Prior knowledge:
The chain is mainly alpha-helical. It has 14 helices and no strands. The protein has helices at 16-30, 32-39, 45-67, 75-99, 105-112, 115-127, 134-151, 163-182, 191-214, 223-251, 253-257, 259-275, 283-298, 301-316.
Amino acid sequence: MWTPLPPEAPQPRRGWRDYALLLALACCWSSTYPLTKIGLGSIPPITFISARSLIAAAFLFAVLRVRGVRMPTDIKAWKLFAQQQTINSTLPFLLITWAQQYVPASNTVVLASTTPIFAFLITWGITRHEPATLLKLIGAILGLAGTALIIGLDALATLDANILAEIVILIATISFACATIFGLRLTDYDPMVVAAGSLLFGGMVLLPFALLIDHPWTLRPTTEALVATTAMGIVSSAFGLMLFYMCLTRLGTLTTNAQGYLRIPIGVGLSVVLLGEAVPANLALGLVLVMAGVAAMTVPRGHYRKWIDRLRGNKGG
Protein backbone atom coordinates (compact mmCIF):
# COMPACT_ATOMS: atom_id res chain seq x y z
CA MET A 1 0.00 0.00 0.00
CA TRP A 2 1.34 3.43 -0.94
CA THR A 3 2.08 5.80 1.94
CA PRO A 4 2.07 9.55 1.14
CA LEU A 5 5.25 11.47 1.76
CA PRO A 6 5.14 13.61 4.91
CA PRO A 7 4.62 17.35 4.31
CA GLU A 8 8.00 18.13 5.82
CA ALA A 9 9.89 15.84 3.40
CA PRO A 10 12.85 17.80 1.99
CA GLN A 11 12.49 18.87 -1.62
CA PRO A 12 15.47 18.31 -3.94
CA ARG A 13 17.25 21.37 -5.28
CA ARG A 14 15.94 22.24 -8.73
CA GLY A 15 18.03 23.44 -11.65
CA TRP A 16 17.40 24.64 -15.19
CA ARG A 17 17.67 21.06 -16.48
CA ASP A 18 14.64 20.05 -14.42
CA TYR A 19 12.53 22.82 -15.94
CA ALA A 20 13.90 21.94 -19.40
CA LEU A 21 12.48 18.43 -18.83
CA LEU A 22 9.11 19.98 -17.96
CA LEU A 23 9.15 21.99 -21.19
CA ALA A 24 10.17 18.89 -23.17
CA LEU A 25 7.26 16.96 -21.62
CA ALA A 26 4.85 19.73 -22.60
CA CYS A 27 6.20 19.65 -26.17
CA CYS A 28 5.81 15.85 -26.42
CA TRP A 29 2.25 15.88 -25.14
CA SER A 30 1.30 18.96 -27.20
CA SER A 31 1.59 16.80 -30.31
CA THR A 32 -1.24 14.61 -28.99
CA TYR A 33 -4.03 16.85 -30.31
CA PRO A 34 -3.12 17.02 -34.04
CA LEU A 35 -1.84 13.43 -34.17
CA THR A 36 -4.99 12.04 -32.55
CA LYS A 37 -7.17 13.99 -34.97
CA ILE A 38 -5.26 12.53 -37.93
CA GLY A 39 -5.18 8.99 -36.57
CA LEU A 40 -8.85 8.77 -35.64
CA GLY A 41 -9.75 9.75 -39.18
CA SER A 42 -9.47 6.13 -40.30
CA ILE A 43 -8.62 4.13 -37.14
CA PRO A 44 -11.26 3.47 -34.40
CA PRO A 45 -10.44 4.76 -30.87
CA ILE A 46 -9.76 1.43 -29.11
CA THR A 47 -7.51 0.16 -31.89
CA PHE A 48 -5.76 3.53 -32.09
CA ILE A 49 -4.99 3.67 -28.35
CA SER A 50 -3.89 0.02 -28.23
CA ALA A 51 -1.68 0.37 -31.31
CA ARG A 52 0.07 3.52 -30.13
CA SER A 53 0.69 1.94 -26.68
CA LEU A 54 2.18 -1.25 -28.17
CA ILE A 55 4.34 0.74 -30.63
CA ALA A 56 5.63 2.86 -27.75
CA ALA A 57 6.31 -0.21 -25.60
CA ALA A 58 8.20 -1.96 -28.43
CA PHE A 59 10.33 1.16 -28.98
CA LEU A 60 11.20 1.47 -25.28
CA PHE A 61 11.96 -2.26 -24.92
CA ALA A 62 14.39 -1.97 -27.84
CA VAL A 63 16.12 1.00 -26.19
CA LEU A 64 16.27 -0.81 -22.85
CA ARG A 65 17.86 -3.81 -24.56
CA VAL A 66 20.53 -1.57 -26.09
CA ARG A 67 21.13 0.01 -22.67
CA GLY A 68 21.40 -3.42 -21.07
CA VAL A 69 18.60 -2.67 -18.60
CA ARG A 70 16.32 -5.53 -17.59
CA MET A 71 12.65 -5.26 -16.74
CA PRO A 72 11.65 -6.28 -13.19
CA THR A 73 10.14 -9.75 -12.85
CA ASP A 74 8.41 -9.40 -9.48
CA ILE A 75 4.62 -9.23 -9.29
CA LYS A 76 4.70 -6.07 -7.13
CA ALA A 77 6.37 -4.01 -9.86
CA TRP A 78 3.99 -5.13 -12.61
CA LYS A 79 1.01 -4.55 -10.33
CA LEU A 80 2.18 -0.96 -9.87
CA PHE A 81 2.70 -0.57 -13.64
CA ALA A 82 -0.82 -1.87 -14.29
CA GLN A 83 -2.46 0.38 -11.71
CA GLN A 84 -0.59 3.46 -12.90
CA GLN A 85 -1.32 2.88 -16.58
CA THR A 86 -5.01 2.38 -15.85
CA ILE A 87 -5.46 5.76 -14.14
CA ASN A 88 -2.88 7.66 -16.22
CA SER A 89 -3.73 6.52 -19.74
CA THR A 90 -6.16 3.69 -20.43
CA LEU A 91 -9.18 4.94 -18.46
CA PRO A 92 -8.89 8.72 -19.09
CA PHE A 93 -8.05 8.32 -22.79
CA LEU A 94 -11.07 6.10 -23.37
CA LEU A 95 -13.33 8.52 -21.47
CA ILE A 96 -12.10 11.59 -23.35
CA THR A 97 -12.23 9.84 -26.72
CA TRP A 98 -15.89 8.90 -26.11
CA ALA A 99 -16.77 12.38 -24.83
CA GLN A 100 -15.23 14.15 -27.82
CA GLN A 101 -18.00 12.72 -29.97
CA TYR A 102 -20.34 15.16 -28.22
CA VAL A 103 -18.11 17.97 -26.92
CA PRO A 104 -16.20 20.40 -29.20
CA ALA A 105 -12.41 20.20 -29.07
CA SER A 106 -12.09 23.72 -27.64
CA ASN A 107 -14.37 22.87 -24.71
CA THR A 108 -12.46 19.63 -24.16
CA VAL A 109 -9.18 21.53 -23.86
CA VAL A 110 -10.65 23.95 -21.31
CA LEU A 111 -12.18 21.15 -19.22
CA ALA A 112 -9.03 19.00 -19.39
CA SER A 113 -6.97 21.96 -18.18
CA THR A 114 -8.54 21.65 -14.73
CA THR A 115 -6.12 18.82 -13.85
CA PRO A 116 -3.72 21.08 -11.87
CA ILE A 117 -6.61 22.36 -9.76
CA PHE A 118 -7.80 18.84 -8.95
CA ALA A 119 -4.21 17.81 -8.16
CA PHE A 120 -3.93 20.77 -5.79
CA LEU A 121 -7.23 19.94 -4.03
CA ILE A 122 -6.33 16.24 -3.63
CA THR A 123 -2.87 17.13 -2.34
CA TRP A 124 -4.19 19.78 0.05
CA GLY A 125 -7.20 17.86 1.34
CA ILE A 126 -6.19 14.18 1.23
CA THR A 127 -2.61 13.09 0.55
CA ARG A 128 -0.63 16.10 1.90
CA HIS A 129 2.51 14.56 0.39
CA GLU A 130 3.97 17.96 -0.54
CA PRO A 131 3.23 21.60 0.40
CA ALA A 132 0.03 22.81 -1.29
CA THR A 133 0.64 26.53 -0.95
CA LEU A 134 -1.71 29.40 -1.72
CA LEU A 135 0.74 30.53 -4.41
CA LYS A 136 0.35 27.22 -6.24
CA LEU A 137 -3.43 27.48 -6.07
CA ILE A 138 -3.23 30.99 -7.54
CA GLY A 139 -0.96 29.60 -10.26
CA ALA A 140 -3.46 26.85 -11.10
CA ILE A 141 -6.29 29.39 -11.40
CA LEU A 142 -4.19 31.79 -13.52
CA GLY A 143 -3.22 28.96 -15.85
CA LEU A 144 -6.84 27.89 -16.30
CA ALA A 145 -7.89 31.50 -17.00
CA GLY A 146 -5.12 31.86 -19.59
CA THR A 147 -6.15 28.59 -21.24
CA ALA A 148 -9.77 29.71 -21.51
CA LEU A 149 -8.63 33.04 -22.98
CA ILE A 150 -6.41 31.39 -25.62
CA ILE A 151 -9.11 28.95 -26.69
CA GLY A 152 -11.63 31.79 -26.75
CA LEU A 153 -14.18 32.87 -24.19
CA ASP A 154 -16.95 32.13 -26.69
CA ALA A 155 -16.05 28.44 -26.45
CA LEU A 156 -17.35 28.45 -22.88
CA ALA A 157 -20.80 29.52 -24.08
CA THR A 158 -21.64 26.02 -25.29
CA LEU A 159 -20.72 24.30 -22.04
CA ASP A 160 -23.56 22.33 -20.43
CA ALA A 161 -24.98 21.53 -23.89
CA ASN A 162 -23.83 17.94 -23.31
CA ILE A 163 -23.47 17.85 -19.56
CA LEU A 164 -22.92 14.07 -19.27
CA ALA A 165 -20.01 14.09 -21.73
CA GLU A 166 -18.52 17.13 -19.99
CA ILE A 167 -18.72 15.38 -16.61
CA VAL A 168 -16.96 12.38 -18.18
CA ILE A 169 -14.09 14.66 -19.27
CA LEU A 170 -13.81 16.04 -15.73
CA ILE A 171 -13.67 12.47 -14.38
CA ALA A 172 -10.80 11.82 -16.79
CA THR A 173 -8.94 14.91 -15.54
CA ILE A 174 -9.38 13.74 -11.94
CA SER A 175 -7.87 10.42 -13.03
CA PHE A 176 -4.90 12.28 -14.53
CA ALA A 177 -4.49 14.23 -11.28
CA CYS A 178 -4.50 11.02 -9.22
CA ALA A 179 -1.94 9.51 -11.58
CA THR A 180 0.54 12.33 -10.94
CA ILE A 181 0.16 11.78 -7.20
CA PHE A 182 0.24 8.01 -7.03
CA GLY A 183 2.98 7.90 -9.66
CA LEU A 184 5.35 8.80 -6.82
CA ARG A 185 5.19 5.12 -5.83
CA LEU A 186 7.29 4.38 -8.91
CA THR A 187 10.15 6.82 -8.36
CA ASP A 188 12.48 3.97 -7.27
CA TYR A 189 12.38 2.52 -10.80
CA ASP A 190 14.11 3.74 -13.96
CA PRO A 191 11.60 6.09 -15.71
CA MET A 192 12.10 4.21 -18.99
CA VAL A 193 11.33 0.91 -17.26
CA VAL A 194 8.12 2.33 -15.77
CA ALA A 195 7.04 3.77 -19.12
CA ALA A 196 7.77 0.51 -20.99
CA GLY A 197 5.97 -1.68 -18.48
CA SER A 198 2.96 0.62 -18.22
CA LEU A 199 2.54 1.00 -21.98
CA LEU A 200 2.87 -2.75 -22.57
CA PHE A 201 0.13 -3.41 -20.03
CA GLY A 202 -2.14 -0.72 -21.49
CA GLY A 203 -1.73 -1.97 -25.04
CA MET A 204 -2.27 -5.62 -24.16
CA VAL A 205 -5.39 -4.90 -22.07
CA LEU A 206 -7.07 -3.06 -24.95
CA LEU A 207 -5.92 -5.44 -27.71
CA PRO A 208 -8.66 -8.10 -27.17
CA PHE A 209 -11.33 -5.39 -27.21
CA ALA A 210 -9.86 -3.94 -30.40
CA LEU A 211 -9.95 -7.38 -32.03
CA LEU A 212 -13.53 -8.11 -30.94
CA ILE A 213 -15.05 -4.67 -31.56
CA ASP A 214 -13.05 -2.98 -34.31
CA HIS A 215 -11.91 -6.02 -36.37
CA PRO A 216 -8.66 -4.22 -37.28
CA TRP A 217 -7.90 -6.64 -40.13
CA THR A 218 -10.84 -5.12 -42.01
CA LEU A 219 -9.65 -1.52 -41.60
CA ARG A 220 -8.09 0.51 -44.38
CA PRO A 221 -6.12 3.20 -42.52
CA THR A 222 -4.57 5.99 -44.55
CA THR A 223 -0.82 6.49 -44.72
CA GLU A 224 -1.23 9.70 -42.71
CA ALA A 225 -3.11 7.83 -39.98
CA LEU A 226 -0.41 5.14 -39.76
CA VAL A 227 2.35 7.77 -39.56
CA ALA A 228 0.37 9.68 -36.91
CA THR A 229 -0.15 6.52 -34.84
CA THR A 230 3.55 5.63 -34.98
CA ALA A 231 4.68 9.19 -34.22
CA MET A 232 2.24 9.46 -31.34
CA GLY A 233 3.45 6.14 -29.95
CA ILE A 234 7.11 7.16 -30.00
CA VAL A 235 6.89 10.90 -29.25
CA SER A 236 3.77 11.35 -27.11
CA SER A 237 3.60 7.97 -25.40
CA ALA A 238 7.18 6.64 -25.17
CA PHE A 239 9.19 9.83 -24.65
CA GLY A 240 6.26 11.66 -23.03
CA LEU A 241 5.61 9.03 -20.37
CA MET A 242 9.32 8.62 -19.65
CA LEU A 243 9.72 12.39 -19.18
CA PHE A 244 6.57 12.41 -17.04
CA TYR A 245 8.10 10.06 -14.47
CA MET A 246 11.40 11.93 -14.56
CA CYS A 247 9.55 15.18 -13.79
CA LEU A 248 7.61 13.54 -10.97
CA THR A 249 10.85 12.42 -9.36
CA ARG A 250 12.61 15.78 -9.74
CA LEU A 251 9.81 18.33 -9.46
CA GLY A 252 6.96 16.73 -7.54
CA THR A 253 3.25 16.45 -8.28
CA LEU A 254 2.01 20.04 -8.43
CA THR A 255 4.93 21.37 -10.45
CA THR A 256 4.71 18.49 -12.95
CA ASN A 257 1.03 19.29 -13.47
CA ALA A 258 1.98 22.80 -14.62
CA GLN A 259 3.02 21.33 -17.98
CA GLY A 260 -0.67 20.93 -18.72
CA TYR A 261 -0.90 24.69 -19.19
CA LEU A 262 2.32 24.90 -21.19
CA ARG A 263 0.83 22.45 -23.69
CA ILE A 264 -1.85 24.95 -24.71
CA PRO A 265 0.31 27.75 -26.17
CA ILE A 266 2.73 25.18 -27.61
CA GLY A 267 -0.16 23.32 -29.26
CA VAL A 268 -1.56 26.57 -30.64
CA GLY A 269 1.87 27.48 -31.99
CA LEU A 270 2.23 24.08 -33.70
CA SER A 271 -1.21 24.49 -35.27
CA VAL A 272 -0.26 27.94 -36.61
CA VAL A 273 3.11 26.80 -37.99
CA LEU A 274 2.24 23.31 -39.26
CA LEU A 275 -1.45 23.57 -40.13
CA GLY A 276 -1.71 27.24 -41.08
CA GLU A 277 -4.44 27.97 -38.56
CA ALA A 278 -5.16 31.58 -37.58
CA VAL A 279 -3.53 33.09 -34.50
CA PRO A 280 -6.16 33.46 -31.75
CA ALA A 281 -6.95 37.11 -31.00
CA ASN A 282 -6.33 36.67 -27.27
CA LEU A 283 -3.15 34.60 -27.63
CA ALA A 284 -0.77 37.21 -26.20
CA LEU A 285 -2.80 37.97 -23.05
CA GLY A 286 -3.66 34.31 -22.54
CA LEU A 287 -0.01 33.35 -22.86
CA VAL A 288 0.95 35.92 -20.21
CA LEU A 289 -1.59 34.43 -17.79
CA VAL A 290 -0.45 30.88 -18.58
CA MET A 291 3.21 31.72 -17.99
CA ALA A 292 2.35 33.57 -14.77
CA GLY A 293 0.44 30.52 -13.57
CA VAL A 294 3.24 28.15 -14.49
CA ALA A 295 5.77 30.36 -12.72
CA ALA A 296 3.64 30.46 -9.56
CA MET A 297 3.36 26.66 -9.58
CA THR A 298 6.98 25.86 -10.39
CA VAL A 299 9.39 28.41 -8.93
CA PRO A 300 10.37 27.49 -5.34
CA ARG A 301 9.17 29.81 -2.57
CA GLY A 302 12.73 30.69 -1.63
CA HIS A 303 13.24 32.34 -5.03
CA TYR A 304 10.21 34.60 -4.53
CA ARG A 305 11.50 35.65 -1.13
CA LYS A 306 14.87 36.56 -2.63
CA TRP A 307 13.22 38.63 -5.38
CA ILE A 308 11.01 40.43 -2.85
CA ASP A 309 14.01 41.17 -0.63
CA ARG A 310 15.92 42.53 -3.64
CA LEU A 311 12.99 44.73 -4.66
CA ARG A 312 12.71 46.08 -1.14
CA GLY A 313 16.44 46.68 -1.07
CA ASN A 314 16.32 48.57 -4.40
CA LYS A 315 13.44 50.71 -3.18
CA GLY A 316 15.24 51.41 0.06
CA GLY A 317 18.41 52.42 -1.84
